[in-house]
Design brief:
142 residues, mainly beta, three-stranded mixed beta sheet, single chain, disordered N terminus, 1 helix
C-alpha cells in the first residue's frame, strides 16, 4: 500500500505491475538498502518528499532483491542508498556521499546526481501485470 507523506493511505490509482530491483557492487552487508521510485522529475533524486512515490527497504546482503508492487504505468526514476549506519539519510562529506548510491539505468555520476531523463525507465500499461527488472550498480566515493 502506498502512503502519503503524513502516513495516510494514498487515493492514487495503482497498477498491477511490479518493478524488481537487484543490486551489484555492495561493499558490505551492514545496514539497509533503501530505494525510492518516483514519476515526478521535481522530486528526483530526493523522491522521499514525493507523497506519491514508492519506497522500499531491504537488508543489505549479497543477492538482495527489492520488489515494488502495484506500480502504476508511466515513466519512473529510481534512487538507491546503501544506508550502512541505518540513519535513514545519505551521509555526506564535503558534498560527496559517504555511503553507496545508485540509480536506475546506471548513469555515469560526475559532479552530482544525474538528471531524471538519464535514469528514466518505463513501466508499461498492462491489464495482466508485468515485471520490470532493474539492476542497480552501487557506487561508493569515500
Amino acid at each position: 500500500m502506498l502512503l502519503t507523506a503524513n502516513g495516510a493511505p494514498s487515493t492514487e490509482a495503482r497498477g498491477s505491475n511490479e518493478v524488481d530491483v537487484r543490486f551489484e557492487g555492495l561493499r558490505s552487508t551492514k545496514g539497509m538498502i533503501r530505494a525510492c521510485l518516483t514519476r515526478e522529475p521535481k522530486f528526483f533524486p530526493h523522491c522521499e518528499k514525493d507523497p506519491a512515490s514508492y519506497k522500499q527497504s531491504v537488508a543489505a546482503r549479497t543477492g538482495a532483491l527489492l520488489v515494488f508492487s502495484d506500480v502504476a504505468p508511466g515513466d519512473y526514476a529510481l534512487t538507491v542508498l546503501h544506508d550502512e549506519n541505518q540513519n535513514f539519510r545519505a551521509d555526506m562529506m564535503l558534498g560527496i556521499p559517504r555511503e553507496g548510491v545508485g540509480f536506475s539505468r546506471n548513469p555515469a555520476l560526475i559532479m552530482g546526481p544525474p538528471k531524471f531523463d538519464a535514469v528514466r525507465f518505463r513501466v508499461p500499461a498492462s491489464n495482466a501485470g508485468e515485471r520490470v527488472a532493474q539492476v542497480v550498480r552501487l557506487k561508493y566515493f569515500l
